[in-house]
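[09:14] KT: can someone run the structure on this one? pasting the chain below
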Amino acid sequence: MPRVKRGTNRTDSRRKTLKLAKGYFLTKSKLYRSAQEAVEKALRYGYVGRKLKKRSFRSLWILRINASCKAKGISYSRFMDGLKKAGLDLNRKMLADIAARDDAGFAQLVEKAKAAIGKAA
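[09:31] RB: done, structure tokens below
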């Protein structure tokens, strides 16, 4: 049977895992098997965390828009409906930024939304 030389595949793979585990506690950063389990779990948590981050930021933007809408005398849902009817396609991230930084600009958006709701009714 011929001899098989695998090169550095196994070493490289293990080195990569141990590099990802750098800074982990005790054997999780030193021993390959422990490091492999810890890295796999960390990567799973990271994947889920990225999805949760998107969810929590969207709810934060909605809260900010809602607070500004209430101050201007309109509910969040009516405001969003008015923007859609007015043909203004602004995402919630931009709307939250405008609500926080530009009070006059947000007031204009509210007036446009109210006017669009008035026309549709």
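[09:33] KT: thanks! The chain has a mean pLDDT of 95.
[09:34] RB: yep, looked fine to me
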